[in-house]
Predict the structure of Cilia and flagella associated protein 161.
Amino acid sequence: YLMSLSTVWNLCYGFCMCSFSLYLASDHKSFIRFAKKSYLQQVFLTNELSYLTCWQATFLDPQLRLEYEGFPVPANSKMIITHCHTNRSLAVPRNFWTRSYFGKEYEVICHTYLDSHKAEEDKNYWEIVTGNPSDKDGTMIHRPNPQPRRDQKE
């Protein structure tokens, strides 16, 4: 389990060689502060820990959110990451991208995309993937599902 659903946490990018950490932050959109491609609320990295860097994991199903509040979030499960200051969800709209040395990079923004039933779209779904301990560079997504042993009685 990674964290509790009601726990407010900071998304931190710590580097081994550096003596500082970078935190994922966001603030309200203004005339001079917005995302470069989509013109929505921007997401940026900062080295200052503040309320702009507070995020909360929310259960995927809106009907069960109150029931699962305070429960631990299982690793490798889909969730919605919501910014505490603006109450908007972290999103990746796949129609805004740029080319870089690493290939095609999509813009990460803070915007809640809702469908006709007022539920979040898949642009707001996130999954924190843990490493696979049996493989050097693998993740738990690449691990096959366990098969029942043949000598066990059903």
Summary: The chain has one domain: 8-142. The chain has a mean pLDDT of 79. The CA atoms of residues 131 and 139 lie 4 Å apart. The domain at 8-142 is CATH 2.80.10 (Trefoil (Acidic Fibroblast Growth Factor, subunit A)).
